[in-house]
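Most newcomers find our protein records easier to grasp once they have seen one. Read left to right, the backbone structure tokens trace the chain's path through space. Once this layout is familiar, the rest of the handout is easier to follow. The record below serves as our worked example for the rest of this section:


***
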Amino acid sequence: MNDAFKELEVAGWREPGRGDAYDAVVGRVTARVAEPLLDAVGVRAGTSLLDVATGTGHVAGAAVARGAHGVGIDISEEMLARARRLYDGVEFALGDAEELAFEDDAFDAAVAAFLLHHVPSPERVVAELARVARRVAVAQWDATERARLIGLFTDAIAAAGVEPPVGQPVGPSRERLARDEELCRLFEGAGLADVRVDTVELWEGVLGGSVNTRATVLAQPPGVQRRIRDELARLADSHRCENGIDVPVSVRIASGRRG
């Protein structure tokens, strides 16, 4: 993993309109993980919480609604601009998940939703979360066959015969980060104990909610992009119901604490 992957991710999340595009589809789903993620670290009135990679602010906003003091940081001012519009009065700031600008034990709890596959070093991020708070939780997409909101796009790209562009930086495996043993390894490596991994099942119904997948699609000629779109429509059709499309979404939530 190198700096090129981080540069790709940062540039993507800072694109104009990214916050609105994210919340158009993916953000509506990921926002529903806020409550179980906050439950995993026991957030209640008076808790101080750091929400890392807050994006459009849904987790930090939910924490403040519980009476907690929530602070949300993100590497993208574009995402933070929408967060501030949605959650007036919540504290948001620019920040890097791999180098948190806070003292040790600055918060009671720290969380990060759908972040670890977007950074070069998940180990470094979890270590930083554990440094600034005693209680830590992260949310990650489940395996592709269960997190179909993301899996449909992955399968459509593969069905269209598309490979990632040559030279495109590759980040951590989203599939590996869905496994219990990998999440436990990361948490225990950061000195966290009482580690548990739970599964949250959601049903809802992506390009605006991704960077790496988006880069792969947009690198293709128009004809191939149309083929990917056609394959996506074909795959999504299997989830069609009376009121639209029901796509299963499964999320892993890992939590732990320092002694």
Notes: The chain is about 40% helix and 20% strand. Residues 159 and 231 are 7 Å apart (CA to CA). The first strand starts at residue 48 and ends at 52.
